[in-house]
UniProtKB/TrEMBL annotation:
This is Putative secreted protein (Por secretion system target). The keyword Signal applies. Keywords: Signal. It comes from Kordia periserrulae. The keyword Signal applies. Residues 153-223 form the Secretion system C-terminal sorting domain. NCBIfam families: Por_Secre_tail.
Length: 225
């Protein structure tokens, strides 16, 4: 009985591994589906498997690509860079049930165009209508209640050393540095310093600086080159 149980688990894990797909860049261009502004969602109710969708993106902004409202098809989505040479993200069954729709959430690592390939599993064309939603997530730290108006961060981009000028901010502030996966790289409690200096000992890429007081919070983008 125990041997049979572990054999079943092994088969399931093998199936999950097989179902992870990176589809080749061979779909046919269908249309552009770029949200007009931060916080907006645009939809197309009838994308087919085998279609290619373009979306204009902005460095540091997060975009959601979802077919979760299509509940009857086993779908795969593959996100490529502008040239179609590099895979940025991929998903199969990410909406929940096994052998179901796909969803991708991706933070842009450049400003330009991405290519989204929509396929019926594994990487097939089809004639079934698929509802595709593309959302430009609302930018953090834009509300008046959460902005440190006088803060400046420089140099940005930086090669290593970063300065944060808090100017006339009198509240105690907690500083945190995050990577694009949300991992905390650095935390510092600032009490009276007007200018804070730190070294970003991390690979080239996009990072986020969060400044938080008792009643305010703001998040800034920082590029390491």
């Amino acid at each position: 009985m125990e041997k049979c149980f572990f054999s079943t688990i092994a088969i399931i894990l093998f199936s999950l591994n097989v179902n992870a797909q990176n589809c080749p860049f061979d779909n046919t261009f269908y249309r552009d589906l770029t949200p007009p502004s931060s916080g907006a969602t645009v939809s197309d109710p009838c994308v087919f498997g085998g279609d290619l969708i373009t979306v204009n993106v902005t460095l540091g902004e997060t975009y959601d690509f979802s077919t979760c409202s299509t509940n009857t098809l086993d779908l795969t989505m593959t996100l490529y860079n502008t040239a179609g040479t590099d895979i940025l993200a991929t998903d199969d069954d990410g909406c929940g049930p096994f052998a179901g729709p796909a969803t991708i959430s991706w933070t842009a690592t450049y400003t330009g165009t991405v290519n989204l390939l929509v396929d019926e599993f594994p990487c097939n064309s089809g004639t079934n209508c698929i509802t595709l939603d593309v959302t430009w997530q609302e930018t953090l730290g834009t509300s008046d209640d959460f902005v440190f108006d006088q803060v400046s961060i420089y140099p940005n981009p930086t090669s290593e050393v970063v300065y944060i000028n808090l100017r006339d901010l009198k509240d105690a502030v907690t500083l945190q540095i995050f990577d694009i996966n949300g991992r905390v790289l650095h935390t510092k409690r600032i009490l009276q310093s007007k200018v804070v200096q730190f070294k970003l000992n991390a690979p080239t890429g996009l990072y986020f600086i969060e400044l938080r007081s008792e009643d305010r919070k703001s998040i800034y983008k920082l590029i390491k080159n």
